[in-house]
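User: Could you write out the 3D structure of this protein bound to iron/sulfur cluster? I've included everything you need below.
Assistant: Certainly. Input first, then the structure.
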Amino acid sequence: MSRKLRIATCSLAGCFGCHMSFLDVDEALADLIEHIEFDRSPLTDIKQVSEQGVDIGLIEGGLCNRENVEVLHQFRQRCKVLVAVGACAMYGGVPALRNGIPVSELVAEAYLGTDVLNPQVPQDPELPPLLKKVLPLHEVVPIDYTLAGCPPPAAAFRELIMAMLEQRAPVLPEDLRRFD
Ligand code: SF4
C-alpha cells in the first residue's frame, strides 16, 4: 500500500466505550499503525476533520444536541466512508432512554430538582441546545457501514480497517456483533 489510510473518530452522545474497544486490538494495533494514521480523534486531540478529507470516519454515540448534528455533517462531508460504531450511533442507545420525556422536564429534573445544590439552569451560550430526541446517525446522514455492539469487539474494528485496506466490503459475522 502506497499511502496510509487516514481515520477520523469522535464520540457524540456516547461513553467512549467504543473507543476503548478499538484500542483493545492490542498488539494488532502495532501492525495496523503501519497502514493507518489518525486525523481528528480523541486519540490525537485534533478538533476538526481535515479539509482535504479522510478515508474513514468512525463515530460512536447518537445525536443529543445541535453540536452533535454539526459534527456529524462535517464527518459526512469529509469522510469517504462513514461508520456508525456501536448501539448508541446505530439506535440512540442508553441516551435515547430520555426520548419519552419532554426536554423541559429533563432539564428541570437535572438542574432544579429538590436534591440539587444551588439549583439553576445553565445559560452559557456556548452550551449547545438539546434536541427533542436522541437520534441515531442514519436518521440525519447516510451511513456506509455499522459496527454493532455495546461496544463492538476489537476484532470488528480490525476487520473493518483490513477490509478498507484491501478495498473490499467488511465481513462481520454474528460473533463480531456483541451486545454484552
Ligand atoms: S455503544 Fe455502548 S460502549 Fe459504545 S458509546 Fe454506546 S454505551 Fe458506550
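Helices lie at 17-23, 28-32, 66-78, 86-91, 103-112, 154-165.
User: Perfect, thank you.
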